[in-house]
Amino acid sequence: GQSLEQPSEVTAVEGAIVQINCTYQTSGFYGLSWYQQHDGGAPTFLSYNALDGLEETGRFSSFLSRSDSYGYLLLQELQMKDSASYFCAVRALESGAGSYQLTFGKGTKLSVIP
Amino acid sequence: NAGVMQNPRHLVRRRGQEARLRCSPMKGHSHVYWYRQLPEEGLKFMVYLQKENIIDESGMPKERFSAEFPKEGPSILRIQQVVRGDSAAYFCASSPMDRGLIETQYFGPGTRLLVL
Fold first, then answer.
1. What is the CA B114 to chain-centroid distance, rounded?
2. Which residues of B touch A94 (CB under 8 A)?
3. For a pLDDT cut of 90, what percent of chain A falls above it?
4. Cβ atoms within 10 A of the Cβ of A68, count?
5. Shortest Cα–Cα distance, A103 to chain B (Å)
6. With an 8 Å Cβ cutoff, are A102 and B56 in contact?
7. Are B42 and A106 a contacting pair at CB < 8 A?
8. For residues A78-99, b (16+ Cβ closer than 10 Å) or e, as one string?
9. Quick one: DSSP state of residue B69?
10. Is A108 in the B-facing interface, judged by CB distances under 8 Å?
């Protein structure tokens, strides 16, 4: 099976930079995804890393190290609207047929304060 | 291009009743996933369907739960004889193709089910 660990809560100041880490354990690995979810809202896809390195999309960047089974989401120039929960997710190759399941972490609740 | 649509947004049922949750994927998407989310928890995979086919239902309880995605119409998640533990948010997601874009899923607004 798969398991993902990420901090439960993070607080940061508006305008600052915050990094949300995710470590995973899987029997196989395709890649690491990140989703954002505001309270009462639907998860929204942010990024996907299949290869090692940093992927940048505007204020958000995501990093993956396959050898360390580790990734992070980096949010720059924080805005109040970035207050939300952030989930990492993996699709892992189970033994036998390929897996169609995305397994999500429990989420990191980010609070941006003035 | 309309996003993933789910209805109802909120559903209240008494124990023992049936709950029917509907999901219309994004236009052009033929792959649907259902997830359950408890408060302060991540999403738990339940089932993956293509038109008229259940591809992976390994995350769905064996009893009382069923899902379908007919040739015409929305995907339906059906919960029979609901119990209080079924109270949760149920999200549907869609993607345009399998394997290649499973990691990029577009979620609907969810159905919040409350069982009294």
1. 15
2. none
3. 75
4. 9
5. 7
6. no
7. yes
8. beeebbbbbbbbbbbebeeeeb
9. -
10. no
Residue that has been written with the tokens 């408060």 in this structure: B39
pLDDT in tens, A43-97: 999 999 989 999 998 999 999 999 999 999 999 999 999 999 999 998 765 544 4
What is the residue whose two structure tokens read 């305008």?
Answer: A15
A83: closest CA of chain B, how far (Å): 15
Backbone CA torsion sign across A109, A78, A69, B100: positive
Q: What is the pLDDT of residues B45-86, one digit of tens each?
A: 999 998 889 988 888 998 999 999 998 999 999 999 999 999
**Cα–Cα distance measured from residue A102 to residue B31, given in angstroms and rounded to the nearest whole number:** 14
Report residue B96 as tokens.
Answer: 């345009």
Can you tell me the distance from the alpha carbon of B18 to that of B39, in angstroms, rounded to the nearest whole number?
A: 22
